[in-house]
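Chain X:
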Amino acid sequence: MELFAPDFWSALLAIVIIDLVLAGDNAIVIGLAARNLPKENQKKVIIWGTVGAIVIRAAATLAVVWLLKIPGLLLGGGLILLYIAYKLMIEEKDHDIEAQNSVFAAIKTIIIADAVMGLDNVLAVAGAAHGDFLLVVIGLLISVPIVVWGSTLFLKLIDRYPYIITIGAGVLAWTASKMIVGEKFMKPYFENGFIKYGFEILLIVLVLGLGTWKKKKLAEEKAAASNEKAPEPSNNEA
């Protein structure tokens, strides 16, 4: 990809949005793991835990960028990313992270938790980079400081403006569609621009539409379950 061309900037923007939406809970993971430590050790844990998580995530992302060049994996990764986009629309994230009482244990917990929770992020960023290692590095350099120091604020914004999640899911679906149409043996089917862009738009609409419908249905089921559990008012008057 040509440096600083329009495609470069659009891919970079997609990477930053993906990092913010999918990795926006990193600060919470760090805080939960370090909450039982003395104040003077918490800063040390935050710094080294974050450094370790960044190194592992960067290495994993670069490895996936290389792996996606293998025939068929781009299509498979795109399909998985479509599912991740759908799950992002309907799932509520839990942060069941055990607090640690030692600096080393807390750092280890942060790194492991981030590695497990960041699998979707790694695949999404690798797909958005379109095989460009420089994009991955620049994307990480831009988004990591935002995620580490601003993710708590970003999570509050998500709670206040839920449509941010929809935007993020749309970017993921768009990235997935790009991966699918970019697969070598799929390209002959998308040589026509109308078919190619129509397919990409269709996937985005399907993911957002199904996600919105499922989320609404789950909310209705949750409300119904809450009403069933609610105690019936007593007929006896004091």
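Chain Y:
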Amino acid sequence: MSAKLQGIILVLLGTISYGLPASLIKLSKQDGITEANILFFQFFFGCLALGILYFISTKKIKTNGTPLNSSAKRSLILSGTALALTNSFYFTSLEYVSVAIAAVMLMQSVWITSVLDFIFKKVVPNPIQIISIIVVLVGTVFTANLINTTIVISPFGLFLSFMSGVCYAVTIMVTNNLAPQASAVGRSFYISLGAFIVISLLWGWSINFTIIPLSLKWGMMIACFAIVLPLLLFAKGMPKITAGIGGVLSALELPAAIAFAYFILDEHITLLQFIGVILIFIAISSVNLVRKKSIEI
């Protein structure tokens, strides 16, 4: 098997892993686990696992990579605030809307990132990006069934899931510019550490201590598929493929999340919703390919 094919398989598995946690969260709620317990123990185990991996590889990082200085560590920890808010909004929204709708609203980060780039960096979107934004919005209308007046969708759930997309866009913008030369494990550990601190402050007071055993089980499982496994697969697979292919494969997170919701939760997916997912996938892929070409130029 070629290195490129190995990279594609690893990144694909990492993307599929990212699509599973939303369904697991729904299942954990059915098992009586609260948002506070899910969030706290997910980031606790995620931070613990990444911390162990980071400190084990510290010697290798110092030899082959650029170590993180104190300033970079503080910035990465602070950037964890956006990640904590992303998960807080996203997890809470699942109480009011389906996984399909929550996942689609999270993917609004594609065009929100372009808007933030324009506001803060004065970067004007190119024609392809503008068309992609329009396609994402059209796909959102289809996937969320907003044109079907017989279906009642929680406005509050839409707001929460949209805010998760806003915070995710901020997370992408901030983390992509912080210590890019450092190891992925080190950067991820300090970001997750910051997120865990914020989660503890926001949700620690409402943890239900009577369901700790169940919380440990679900927290460890969700942390594995939402934090640890994707990081390891991406860190191993991304260097073997081009950024353009990686971006396209990463866009498969949305259909993966909806597929898991269909098979695990038995959520009904209409043909119109399926078309909406395809449109959003095409739009996200186009944006990533355009970014790749701009980097090469």
